Design the sequence.
């Protein structure tokens, strides 16, 4: 499932709690974003392929689910089922098939009453007491099996059932695997005529399709009464399974599909892609020059900038990077490029150390207040100047030279593209700037995702602790957690985010995680934490939203209009900047299970709205193109207002 608009058609979704539904929707939206960012798709049924093509506008190929060598080997060793007793089988598996089986239940109930030697065998979960009341003695239940044992169990059946909720869009997307696996064991299948089964079953030859109760009853009776037909249908089903769904057949299909995809991709590349991404520009692409402060290790701000540059290059634009020579760490652009590649990733862009020779371009991008002054000095070289703003930078300094110069840079007339909505709010409140666009941080959902298993009963608080970064309010966090530890002495408190030796003079027992070696460890930390404590006195980092994506409730400060970052106060616990208020907020989450579940569900839902890296870059690209178009239209209209009066006066003079 990838289309959230169709989720109400899933029976199991309708029976979920609101929190479970929110978590399920979050997963669907993640899948949807991934699919829309992909260029090509493979799927298991023709119905899904058509749906995907309509939904994404991209091509899709069908590679059906098939059999493996071990299944074929085991099935070859099985014997035909015995004549008495005979089992009608329903291989349910999970708890999601109540409405599916209901399609066949009335006919099955009649058959069980009419044939003394016929029983129903259910493998997996099915509430037979509701669906087949009074027939408990005619039903055999088998627990879930591994796939090898399932081959043996399937071979014991006389008939395999594959009913589906016939009007459900979700069921129309189902694969024909229930037919294939039964056919491998020479068991004929009666199925609802959903698309994949209608494509695989020639009714009356290698299986039977049934829609109404009468059709189900007739199909069951025929296969129970006519042994010759049963044997013939079993043989034809087995032939169909091996000819179309064997490992060899699926392998051939895989080769065919991927050769087709590769050929199509090569054609696209030969038509539109540059042969070398260095210094080349795609037809129709923009030339974008970035001015960036010198990069350093583990810089989240630089990572966001570099991510945008890399993707804009992949979209066909020519990016050039000028690095401010803030100190003598690097001696040339090649050294900076190597550092960026090793510490972050390859930009596939020209990297130049210094700002003395900035060339003409379509867009000139400032990325910090110090770079804005360089952009201003080179304003005649660009059609548009963009301020890529990730925080309200005057707040980094006490009132003084840096503060007033950072504030003054916001009056240069550049077009603002900000990381999150908060910087735009601050610009409107301080300098009256109401024009601009914002993007949300991208969240890596391969790393940050909710915990579906559970992590035990011990409470844990994860504190994003940065002692040397004043805006992270480290002393305030320590004071608050000391109070929490007195109230809940058994709670585990984890400090992380800085070097381990930075955490000194902490007046309570805590776990010193320091700087994790991998970001995967952060996902594990958030999933196993009851509360995430992360202070955002200026624009927040990605940290609280990564916590939310993992289902971890967040406690943050209610300062500087911070609520705008969380959409509303229902998505996080926002508290006053006092140790007592912070401790109370943390304890409320630790002590109130309902609040904890609600915050977790709301956080997952909010984080699900954040873009992927590709979607973020597409937004930035769209903002740049739109601002550039507006600038050129404005300049064109301005030139016309100057020319027209001159023409008019000439006519009057004539």
Sequence:
């Amino acid at each position: 499932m990838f289309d959230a608009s169709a989720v109400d058609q899933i029976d199991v979704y309708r029976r979920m709690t609101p929190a479970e539904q929110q978590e399920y929707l979050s997963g669907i939206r993640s899948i949807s974003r991934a699919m829309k960012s992909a260029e090509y798709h493979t799927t298991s049924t023709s119905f899904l392929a058509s749906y995907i093509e309509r939904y994404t506008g991209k091509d899709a190929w069908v590679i059906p689910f098939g059999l493996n060598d071990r299944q074929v080997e085991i099935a070859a060793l099985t014997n035909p089922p015995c004549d008495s007793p005979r089992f009608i089988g329903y291989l349910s598996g999970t708890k999601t098939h109540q409405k599916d089986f209901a399609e066949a239940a009335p006919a099955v109930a009649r058959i069980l009453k009419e044939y003394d030697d016929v029983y129903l065998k259910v493998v997996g979960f099915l509430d037979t007491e509701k669906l087949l009341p009074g027939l408990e003695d005619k039903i055999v239940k088998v627990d879930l099996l591994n796939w090898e044992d399932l081959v043996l169990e399937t071979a014991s059946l006389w008939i395999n059932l594959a009913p589906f909720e016939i009007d459900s869009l979700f069921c129309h997307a189902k694969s024909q695997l229930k037919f294939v696996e039964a056919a491998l064991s020479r068991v004929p299948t009666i199925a609802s005529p959903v698309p994949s089964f209608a494509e695989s079953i020639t009714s009356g030859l290698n299986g039977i399709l049934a829609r109404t109760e009468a059709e189900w009853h007739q199909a069951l009776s025929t296969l129970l009464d006519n042994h010759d037909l049963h044997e013939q249908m079993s043989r034809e089903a087995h032939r169909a399974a091996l000819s179309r769904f064997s490992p060899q057949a699926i392998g051939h299909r895989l080769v065919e599909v991927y050769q087709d995809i590769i050929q199509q991709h090569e054609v696209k590349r030969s038509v539109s892609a540059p042969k070398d991404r260095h210094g080349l520009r795609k037809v129709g692409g923009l030339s974008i020059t970035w001015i960036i402060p010198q990069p350093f290790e583990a810089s989240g701000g630089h990572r966001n900038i570099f991510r945008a540059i890399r993707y804009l290059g992949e979209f066909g634009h020519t990016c050039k990077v000028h690095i401010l020579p803030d100190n003598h760490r690097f001696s040339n652009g090649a050294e900076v490029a190597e550092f960026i590649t090793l510490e972050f990733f390859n930009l596939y862009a020209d990297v130049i150390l210094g700002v003395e020779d900035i060339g003409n371009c379509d867009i000139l991008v400032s990325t910090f207040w110090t770079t804005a002054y360089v952009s201003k000095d080179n304003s005649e070289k660009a059609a548009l100047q963009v301020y890529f703003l990730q925080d309200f930078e005057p707040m980094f300094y006490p009132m003084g030279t840096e503060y007033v110069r950072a504030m003054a840079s916001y009056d240069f007339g550049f077009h603002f593209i900000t990381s999150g909505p908060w910087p735009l709010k601050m610009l409107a409140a301080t300098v009256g700037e109401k024009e601009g666009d914002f993007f949300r941080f991208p969240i890596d959902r391969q790393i940050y995702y909710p915990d579906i298993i559970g992590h035990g009963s011990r409470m844990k608080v994860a504190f994003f602790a940065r002692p040397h970064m004043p805006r992270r309010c480290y002393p305030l966090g320590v004071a608050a957690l000391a109070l929490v530890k007195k109230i809940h002495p058994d709670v585990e408190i984890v400090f992380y985010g800085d070097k381990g030796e930075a955490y000194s003079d902490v007046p309570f027992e805590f776990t010193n995680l320091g700087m994790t070696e991998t970001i995967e460890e952060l996902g594990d930390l958030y999933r196993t934490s009851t509360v995430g404590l992360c202070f955002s006195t200026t624009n927040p980092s990605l940290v609280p939203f990564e916590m939310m994506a993992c289902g971890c409730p967040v406690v943050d400060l209610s300062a500087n209009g911070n609520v705008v970052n969380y959409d509303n106060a229902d998505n996080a616990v926002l508290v006053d900047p006092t140790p007592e208020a912070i401790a109370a907020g943390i304890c409320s989450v630790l002590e109130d299970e309902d609040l904890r579940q609600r915050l977790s569900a709301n956080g997952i839902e909010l984080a699900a709205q954040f873009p992927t890296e590709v979607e973020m870059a597409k937004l930035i690209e769209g903002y740049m193109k739109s601002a550039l178009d507006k600038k050129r239209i404005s300049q064109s209209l301005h030139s016309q207002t100057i020319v027209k009066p001159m023409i008019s006066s000439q006519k009057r003079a004539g």
